[in-house]
Amino acid sequence: MSIEQITGRYLCVEVAGRQQRIYFEEAGQGRPVLCLHTAGSDTRQWRHILNDPEITAENRIIAFDMPWHGKSLPPEGFMTQEYLLTTEAYMETVLAVIRGLGLERPVLAGVSMGGRIALQLAVHHPEVFSGFLAIEASDFQPAWYDIDWFHRPDAHGGEMGAALVSTNISPYAPEAERANTMWMFMQSGPGVFRGDLSFYTQDDSLVGALHRIDTAKTPVHFIVGAYDFTCTPDDARRTAAQVAGATLSVMEEVGHFPMSEHPAGFRPFFIEGLARMPKAEIGA
Amino acid sequence: MIDRMKRMQADLEHLPHLHRMGALFSETVLVKVDGQEFYLVFDKGRIAQLLEGPSKKTPYRFGLITDGAALTEFWTATPKPGFHDIFAMVRIGRAEIIGDMLLLVKNLRFLKEVLALPRARHEVIK
């Protein structure tokens, strides 16, 4: 028997005029590292990093479920609302969590759409952060699928979404973790994956803005998996090339959900990325 | 290639979880490899018939068109990037999917698992 070191609590906070009850998990102490999950999933993707004693010895790892995801309920009135994530709402949510938890200039580690918003925040609110890990992240990715597939009355959007995203899971991923990664997509609420993909595949507002990032103040490190066919290594390289001073690492045996699908394959790259970020400030 | 297809058909018989997953799938799927046609006739999650083409009279709902080298790599235990998944093969230009895409996506988990059966890690213990 064992009890994991992860603790989970709820933060009740107003985001863009709406009250949100946001579930977050954390473990460790030291430099705050705020972690963002991918589209259509939740904080459980970060379970291995949150349970890593070496990483949490010097880092306070925090991950939260976006509203509508995981254990964060949708806002009041959601039954008549179409969920469509926007850049503005996403950025405001991340900032509200940071304010609500009192985090002092955290490192922001975002994956996929989380990586996209990390780059947006690096452009628009760099002063809030000490650095950025942009994982499976690019400036823009048009859809190679129809996002409406994932919210239909005649099919299970979660199972369809899981089957589709399995395209981006590495064959080197342990079977159990491949299954766990797909399960989270299967559990996604109706229309949530579609609403996330709307943001991810249609909002191109980051294009042309990346040159504004000052990596001397807030370093940006890209990490991308060779088996990612949503954000390929070439997509990440194209994006990183627009950020002067950005660095990039390619994980040869990992896909689009590195921390969840292949924890052992991702771990050294995450540690390397953290090492590129500023150390915790005294008293932080 | 036909031996691999027959092995896929035989292995599927021993996998009840795929019979459950494909219980509502009774359609014909074309797999075209180096121009050679194979028609997988599914009936409630099983491959009831495996027909070799060419045929202009066998109706199918959707099809996967690829080449033998790509499919052989797809069936290795750890395929190279791009060859590990049918949609990834499309993305790198080594496969094409034709026909009723929505029907494929509705049954995607089932069909991906069936098409991957010849992989070494999916060897069936009989």
From TrEMBL, chain A:
Domain of life: Bacteria
Keyword Hydrolase among record annotations: yes
Hydrolase found in the keyword field: yes
Protein known as: Alpha/beta hydrolase
Organism whose genome encodes this protein: Pararhodobacter oceanensis
Alphabetical keyword list: Hydrolase
Taxonomic lineage from the root: Bacteria, Pseudomonadati, Pseudomonadota, Alphaproteobacteria, Rhodobacterales
Family annotation (Gene3D superfamilies): alpha/beta hydrolase
SUPFAM superfamilies noted in UniProt: alpha/beta-Hydrolases
Coiled-coil residue windows: none
Pfam families with a match to the protein in the record: Abhydrolase_6
GO MF term list: hydrolase activity
Boundaries of every AB hydrolase-1 domain copy: 33-266
Automatic annotation (TrEMBL), chain B:
Protein name, per record: SCP2 domain-containing protein
